[in-house]
Design a protein that fits this description.
This protein is about 15% helix and about 10% strand. The protein has about 80 residues and is largely without helices or strands. It comes from Variovorax defluvii.
């Protein structure tokens, strides 16, 4: 089950569970669309995987299986892999 992390790892922007701006890789690294499409050019800086829109969890399931409240944020921002 997806963790649905609450914020962008690069800029710490809030990304609620229903946000259309959340992007994830296959390891669930989470970024906002601005960082993912801009500075990261669609590539996860952690694993090199592609960043795709995060699926939305239906409201009734979100109530039973809530999104994560654990933030992952890189104080140095996002480094881009060479």
């Amino acid at each position: 089950m997806l963790q649905m992390r609450p914020g962008c790892e690069c800029c710490d922007r809030d990304l609620p569970a229903d946000s259309p701006d959340a992007r994830i890789c296959s390891f669930e690294c989470t970024f906002c669309s601005d960082c993912a499409d801009g500075r990261l050019a669609g590539k996860c800086p952690n694993c090199g995987g592609e960043l795709l829109p995060r699926p939305k969890r239906p409201a009734d399931k979100l109530a039973k299986f809530p999104a994560s409240t654990t933030r992952v944020f890189k104080l140095d921002g996002c480094g881009v892999q060479p």
